[in-house]
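Deviation from plan, reported transparently: magnesium ion complex.
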Amino acid sequence: QLAGTLAAPGFAIGTARWLRVADIAVPVDGQGPGVEAARLDSALAAVRDRLSAEDGTHAGATIRAAHIAFLDDPELRKAADRDVGAGRDAGHAWRQATRAQAEVLRSLGDARLAERADDLLDLERQVLRELTGAADDALAFAPGTILLADDLLPSQVMALDPACVVGLVVERGGPTSHVAILAATMGLPALVAVGAPLNEVADGATLILDADNGVLHVAPDDATLAEARTRMERRAADRAAALAQAAEHCVTADGVRIEAFANLGSVEDAVVAMANGAEGSGLLRTEFLFLERDTAPDAAEQAALYGNIAATLEGRPLIVRLLDVGGDKPASYLPIAPEENPALGLRGIRVALAMPDILEAQLRGILSVQPVGQCRIMVPMVASVDEITAVRAVVDRLRVEMDITERVEVGIMVETPAAAVTSATLAAHADFLSIGTNDLTQYALAMDRGNPAVAGGVDGLHPAVLQLIAHTTDGAKRHGRWVGVCGGLASDRLAVPLLIGLGITELSASPRFVPELKALVRRLDTAACHRLALRALAASSPREVRAMAREFCQELAA
Ligand code: PEP
Ligand code: MG
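Because the crystal trials were delayed, the predicted structure below was used instead.
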């Protein structure tokens, strides 16, 4: 049994198959600078055309946009041209240039930028295939394959056939990489950061991949395998039953209303959310609109996008989070200097307050959406009251300028320990509070959520995080505000009873989890959840909390 970090949830039984990809061979010396420059031009153009023409999921589109941005990067091209000018083969020159830049990204000490290096290496292969005519990476696998790899490239994941590959296990990798996002979108369970012991697993071994619990069982005995098969069947039946009732209202067994919302990044996500019975969106990650481009979107472009998503939700609430870029999510046109410690730097609402034009354009975009009020505004990374009062002042000024008489809700994300601890003070100024458990966990535990070295410890069910959540709901109650969760814990079935027991009344989960979330909530009794939560608050480790929650859920199922 090997341990890894959850990158995409799920459970699968299958046969191990290693993905081994050899470098594409290219000569060092070319046929002269003129010839090689022309070859490179046409290869880059061909890859760019192919990337622009493909359509598919939102995650796929975001990644292709990232690849196109690299193709257009003048520094990369300049480095390749230098080698071509010195008589090198176009493929050799392109490889040298991409690898040098990937090395730079890796050396910056930022886990997320290091993950972008994978995108560059991916692009190296795509261009070299174009230049040499090498066949596509052999990604045809037998049905029931669990793919093992030292590392995976985003385009390799996109090329997989989900009818054959049923799970991914990666020796290195990070839980927030593009590979993780893609796997989740494709519904493939995935574990990353499993480490060197993965190399002991041979091709053909039977595997049980329990991504939810972060374990890979290798060559299980017959009894374990039979148990896993039963579990798979039960999961499939549960999913079908949950989906059949996905459109129904979400209330607990004792009649407490819990809003089952979905996290969105695009119109496509909103379509999936609606099909899965989401009752609204508790988090629209607007930064997707701001990344991988040369200028900030203006108010009209933003209004069109938010309007489209609001229309897709057919009047259901849409909580639009203000831009959360900076540091680890760079937007080249925003003048943010490189930072020693980006997670503690200019990010979230700090960026918007430092760049009032960006904030104003975004608020105008949100306020333009009809009907006014369907969109609520959510402020990310709040640490102090001043930040919310500053945003509210701009909202009020714009309402006057835009002749808006309706009230527009302005809420905050609770992602810093400061916000959790002072929730009573903040709640006096905020219409609602939504806990971003991903960041709250990283800041409470002082563990970088993107760093594979500490990935195993970043668990939102740590009692320290639960105490902060309890503190937040207590503070909010004093002002009659509701508290939701839009971080990863809302999509974690063991966390749901605990969160409800701590007084959370809105859960914004990944769209595909909504049917299961609703089915689970309908079986919960809030008093029992509260008793469970009190025990969890006094527990001494996340492991102990998970054990309690597992037992609680098993009793529900019995
Ligand atoms: C969070 O921090 O929990 C959150 C929802 O925001 P993001 O994951 O986009 O940082
Ligand atoms: Mg966050």
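The pocket of phosphoenolpyruvate (ligand 1) is lined by residues 283, 285, 324, 415, 436-439, 486-487 (CB under 6 Å). We consider this an acceptable substitute for the interim report.
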